[in-house]
Amino acid sequence: MQKKFGRPADRDEEAVGQLVRMHGQMLYRVCLVMLGNPHDAEDAVQETFLRFMTKGPDTKDAEHQKAWLIRTATNLCRNMRLFRLRHPHVDVEAVENLGAPAVCRDVYREVLRLPANYRLVLLLYYVQGYRTEEIARILNISPAAVRKRLQLGREKLRMEWERE
What we know:
Layout lengths: L12 H23 L2 H18 L6 H25 L15 H12 L2 H12 L4 H8 L3 H21 L1
Helix pairs in contact: 1-2, 1-3, 1-5, 2-3, 5-7, 6-7
């Protein structure tokens, strides 16, 4: 049963804990795809939930909360990537051992090499099961742009896969 979240100042730990259990892994995967580093992904997820506790929407609608969390996480990841570009540091860890068969790891590695806008749309569509209209709303782009990114992302993935 969904807990009442109310105003940010009135939120209790149990309600936020429930939200973390419901959406934590999904947000981690989104952040991992965008950032390519498990440590940065964990930081982004943690910051997303902290922002929910302090600034999150005052709604009981689970889908609205989920969309808010995804949008906030993607914005945080984008900011982290920009910071990384402006302030270079030691190479980011590669995600090697995901506990999946070798082919899955290879496909995942190829997906990580795609530009961020294609990676995120592919993840939301194929892994999270969102429809193009929902992805468009979350990313604040048109449904046609989502479909085009899906098409181009699949083409780029296919070309890279065939090249190797």
